[in-house]
Amino acid sequence: EKGGFESFMDKEIHDQPHAVADTLLGRTDTAGRIVLDDLRIDESVLRSVDKIIVIACGTAAYAGHVAKYAIEHWCRIPVEVELAHEFRYRDPIVDERTLVVAISQSGETMDTLMAVRHAREQGAKVLAIVNTNGSTIPRESDAVLYTHAGPEIAVASTKAFLAQITAAYVLGLYLAQLRGNKYPDEVTQIMDELRDMARKVQTVIERGEYVRATARSMKDADKVLFLGRHVGYPVAMEGALKLKELAYIHAEGFAAGELKHGPIALIDEGQPVFVVVPSPRGRDQLHSKMVSNIQEIRARGARTLVIAEDGDDAVRAYADEIFWIPQAPSLLQPLLAVVPLQIFAMALASAKGLDVDQPRNLAKSVTVE
Ligand code: M6R
């Protein structure tokens, strides 16, 4: 069943190009417009939504954090992302014009299910982005947008994460189309770029051996930091989560802009720091800010492990290791940048002789609160 791979996780990492492609399949009509037939929420309701709250746990919540950047940018609707177990207990402001988006691979996570029930009791519409057909969360939601990642067996989520981002992006584009924030040809263009991501994810996987070798050389690391900005920030947190759960290493993801506000005190000689570098082609200052951050931590002794776009020569001078990813539009970069982090955590855990599919103390779906 592992299809010749060492572990389910390894197989599932390799399934990722398909997870992205299949999640996009059948979402557009011949004219290139997004059609979500199975949505079951009235278009007039979706047009009047004035706030979106994403609820999820763990990796699914990080997919929500990534999607927030894209949905706000495309639709101009405020998006909050909240851990399901926090949402439920804080008296959230939710009404008929709130769209709650519940993201879950299993569709059975108890914390997320309880938050779904709570949101519906308050009058919100709930749309579930779920991977497992016929599971409880979509049954109890108003609408469902399935991710088509196929069964995910390894406890550490990989392909479901890419599929969740993809599905949430389709939802964002659909809302933008419906509400007139985007012209049809803009939607078609972004959908084409999304479809092209499957091929690029495959390229990152094919470059995995260098990541694995680096991981093997770092099996004695006891603390690893991850930095990102913008959509790279949730990617940094996801990279840290992978390393915690698989390799039992203390790992933490930070927004790079936060360094001076505290975390830079953690940097000492030899401290490994992963840095997810934004595209140098972006119109904002993010890339140059991040290059300065890399310089700052390197000057304090950090060992910098940099994820950068092909052709980004500015990072060369300050990187100890560079994991190259293909060029992509800024909002789509997370689909590529997370892959070396997944491979790194898996390879480091294997090098330590750990069971990557079944890490200690964890269950694939958390059906208790
Ligand atoms: O099935 P779900 O997507 O609802 O699960 C949510 C989290 O429990 C899950 O993502 C967890 O964080 C994974 N072990 C992460 O790799």
UniProtKB/TrEMBL annotation:
<feature type="active site" description="For Fru-6P isomerization activity">
    <location>
        <position position="364"/>
    </location>
</feature>
<keyword id="KW-0963">Cytoplasm</keyword>
<keyword id="KW-0032">Aminotransferase</keyword>
<dbReference type="GO" id="GO:0005829">
    <property type="term" value="C:cytosol"/>
</dbReference>
<dbReference type="GO" id="GO:0006002">
    <property type="term" value="P:fructose 6-phosphate metabolic process"/>
</dbReference>
<dbReference type="GO" id="GO:0006047">
    <property type="term" value="P:UDP-N-acetylglucosamine metabolic process"/>
</dbReference>
<comment type="subunit">
    <text>Homodimer.</text>
</comment>
<dbReference type="GO" id="GO:0006487">
    <property type="term" value="P:protein N-linked glycosylation"/>
</dbReference>
<feature type="domain" description="SIS">
    <location>
        <begin position="41"/>
        <end position="181"/>
    </location>
</feature>
<protein>
    <recommendedName>
        <fullName>Glutamine--fructose-6-phosphate aminotransferase [isomerizing]</fullName>
        <ecNumber>2.6.1.16</ecNumber>
    </recommendedName>
</protein>
<dbReference type="GO" id="GO:0005975">
    <property type="term" value="P:carbohydrate metabolic process"/>
</dbReference>
<dbReference type="GO" id="GO:0004360">
    <property type="term" value="F:glutamine-fructose-6-phosphate transaminase (isomerizing) activity"/>
</dbReference>
<keyword id="KW-0808">Transferase</keyword>
<comment type="function">
    <text>Catalyzes the first step in hexosamine metabolism, converting fructose-6P into glucosamine-6P using glutamine as a nitrogen source.</text>
</comment>
<dbReference type="GO" id="GO:0097367">
    <property type="term" value="F:carbohydrate derivative binding"/>
</dbReference>
<dbReference type="GO" id="GO:0046349">
    <property type="term" value="P:amino sugar biosynthetic process"/>
</dbReference>
<keyword id="KW-0677">Repeat</keyword>
<feature type="domain" description="SIS">
    <location>
        <begin position="214"/>
        <end position="359"/>
    </location>
</feature>
<keyword id="KW-0315">Glutamine amidotransferase</keyword>
